[in-house]
């Protein structure tokens, strides 16, 4: 099913928020507003474009061309355009939460008011405004057949009517600001999505720059907990199906909650249930207190260790860690025994550690696949028959080869160049630095290189490298075309065997290549266990999560000086709500 959230390529004015029956110049007006809200064009440039378009005969430009007293009061243009963009926005108003943050100027921790969007209210808005029908969004059977069984089980267990219960997913991540006053920081975004289709729109819950998280020694826990408290309160409301009569923490409504107060105690027309959480390993460490990748026991599904008998790199069907799987509740109990408070999300009766998913983007594309590609390309520099007497020269020849491969195969996501440093950073094992989807499109290219090297050298090592690339390539084609958990499980096991054999050889020889990585274990968990419970990991489409976070980073750019936190955060939320209202984010 095509994405609802993106414009088809070609004509940037044709988006889902803008019907083709709307005149072209009105579409231009909406397009210009979108550029402003995403911080792509400054307000005065938009006023100038609108004025020129109007002078050229466009009819629907009055609203934009007269901004800031027809452009004469430059300082007011931005304010006027923001007002014009918020006109008729029906997306629910944000819910204000008191959270501790580190003030950017003084670095002092203080309590501030911060806006979030409640999923229950946005869901009600979507249904009321005909974005979707309830019948449509409760049905995840086609999009996620395996997770659908899980959904049915949860509905049964918690007495939720399947025809009125909306399955949703949660995503958290941070991306660096491209340009801003806090250039070193990332913006941390919590978002959710409907699971009835695999490419559904991501919706904002909260966003906050990482450098504003509490720094009292809690590693940001206090800030995150204050936000999660509200999310859990709202998700509990969605389970119960009745609108709360008081604010979270049981406090009385604030003046800003006037509309909420009117609906307090009334039944919602629907329920919603959190089925899955997605993110990368550092985020799981941050939000769920899961072990870090370099911990002695790094897994939250089994007791695999970084060395010893139960080491994760003991591969094969009889590996000891396979006998050491955590029982229900055992992992969280172990955390509590270590004095760690489990994440508030686990206080939801329906949400467990097993609902935290591993996905293809983080585990494979940016993990296992990046390591495999780095190693193969690194070896190809010396052993694939490239004819030049320096390694730099051979890297240029390899890049020429890759450009031809890109051209012939019409690859959509391409590297923009290739240097030795991108294949192997100094003093680190090889790992290809390709972002997003770039790495997965290099798997077939690396398989061809592995064949070239095997044909030239025909030894045990080249045979093993070929085994690695063959299994990796098979995994991607199974995920893309013919999903079969048994086959995916088998290929991931064979891949692990070959990777471990290569690592042993490398260690014996004192090489810097093919070292084992904890992410290899997540790959085994993902294909050999999780896939049977949650289906094809490629269908989670974490790329859309990443794209969304990137867009929020653009919306959240801070222009001008430092006002209060509340004013800035509300401004960001207004921009986002205007975009959501247009169905343009
Ligand atoms: Zn703190
Ligand atoms: Zn494990």
Structure description:
- The protein has about 575 residues and is α+β, with helices and mostly antiparallel strands.
- The protein has 4 domains: about 60 residues, no CATH class; about 220 residues, no CATH class; about 55 residues, no CATH class; about 180 residues, no CATH class.
- The protein is about 45% helix and about 10% strand.
- It is built from 21 helices and 6 strands.
- Strands 5-4-3-6 form a 4-stranded mixed β-sheet. A two-stranded antiparallel sheet has the order 1-2.
- Helix 13 crosses helix 14 and helix 13 crosses helix 19.
- It is globular, with a radius of gyration of 26 Å.
- Bound molecules: zinc ion (ZN) (2 copies).
- One zinc ion (ZN) binds next to loops.
Features of this protein?
alpha+beta, 585 residues, 9% strand, binds zinc ion, globular, disordered N terminus, four-stranded mixed sheet, two-stranded antiparallel sheet, single chain, 4 domains
